[in-house]
Amino acid sequence: MSQLKTIQDEDVPIWLPRLAAHGGPRFLQIADALQAAVAAGSLKPGDRLPPQRQLAAQLDVDLTTITRAYDEARRRNLLEGRGARGTYVAAPKVDLMAVLDLSMNTPPPPDGVDFDDLLKQGLSQVLMRADNASLMTYHLAGGSDADRKAGATWLAPMFGQLDARQVVVCPGAQAAIAALILALTQPGDVILAEPASYPGLRAAATQFGRHIIAVEADQHGMLPERLEQACRQHQPGLLYLNPTLQNPTTITMPERRREALASIAQRCNVRIVEDDPYWLLADAAPPPIATFAPQQVVYISTLSKCLTPGLRVAFALIRDPHERERFLCALRAFALMAAPLTAALATQWILDGSAERLMAGVRDEARLRQRMARDLLAGRYSGAGDGLHLWLALPAYWHSLQLARAADSEGIAVTPAEAFATGSVSANAIRLSLGNIKDRARLRAGLQRLSDLLARRPESFSAAVV
After folding, report:
1. Does Transport count among this protein's keywords (predicted)?
2. What is the pLDDT of residues 6-43, one digit of tens each?
């Protein structure tokens, strides 16, 4: 709630929010109250706000609090500066390219977490405690000792206590996958994967001259008997699996299936790349495949899906020291290292508990959005109830590419099944990613428009001639 007064000599509306003692950071309370006043119409576009020092005195807070509140309000497109004339309530922003992007799999913004503050505090702690020179130089050993210990801490929910020397810090999961392909296979080798798999695998394999062959899967993931047949027939160099909230199908492999696949890989002497970005987001995920065949599996866990893609930090658990060195040599050929500053920030967040708080917020927000999708896509929803995406089987009258084009024409970006196919396309479906649209109301609007589109039979879409 807020009240409005007027100073006669300046004719400036004084907007005074009431600050609660236990209402969270004061700068956010001020920004929230300003947003509420604009929504209610008590502050209108073009209204001039008081100078920051004046408002700080009125509210009995320091100037920094007001500066941060105004900065936050500008970030929300509520205010605009007009130089010496002061700060004014902004006119509503018109987004001429208002594409609702349901194609990019990123973690949603967690409710109640001030990410800007988290970032500033984390970097402040890093710069205060670290040797700044070491943050600006090369690191050739797969991360500093502290970074590898943080990686072992990050992986502890999956594996318990780990030897940090077995953990390699990588500049993202994609770099780790590419380095494993280079280190563990030769040009022309076969890589086995499920019929619908992470597109980054196909991109790296194609670039390096390897061949991906799809192995049949069912509702529990890759079929063990089909894997054994493929191993005997193709003598693969690698087996790629994404067993938890699989991208794109959302399937989580049950424990018995994981154990069976690990046993076959051991018997056939095939190395497994277990790409597991969503394990920490899943509800009661089974043990990783790497627990059943520790020497046979390289396990990858990225922060990009649980915290933020901007860190570009992933951890690879490689137990064999010779294999670890081969992996590092391959990684250095194209990526050299994870950026020390962002790796140090990831380490700081993991060790001080910020990563866990942020991830808990992401997990809660992702589940809320899954419930929203289930309600709006009733009868079509095929998500897992958690995770960042869902896999939407289409009615027979829509084809996935056709639906993607039709959605695009209505300002909605989705990803068709073809983007994930490792062989012939085996599903008529699209993947919907629920985290990339920050505002829940816009996400709801996009899902509703998509639901309406799915209910209609397709029309012919042809390009206009002008």
Report:
1. no
2. 333 345 455 688 888 877 889 999 998 999 888 888 89
Helix spans in 208-339 (H): 224-234, 255-268, 321-332
For residue range 134-154, list pLDDT tens digits in order. Answer: 899 998 889 999 999 999 999
Dist. CA 214–CA 217, nearest whole Å: 9
Of 246, 241, 271, residue with least CA distance to 258: 241
Rounded CA-CA distance 371/363 in Å is 13
DSSP string covering 84-147: GG-EEEPPPP--TT--EE-SS--PPPPTT--HHHHHHHHHHHHHHHS-GGGGGS---SSS-HHH
Q: Which residue has the tokens 């990684």?
A: 331
Query: With contact defined as beta carbons under 8 Å apart, do 295 and 312 qualify?
Result: no
Q: How far apart are CA 435 and CA 369, in angstroms?
A: 8
| Domains of the chain, CATH where assigned | 2-89 (1.10.10.10), 100-112+359-455 (3.90.1150.10), 115-354 (3.40.640.10)
Does residue 70 contact residue 52 with C-beta atoms inside 8 Å?
A: yes
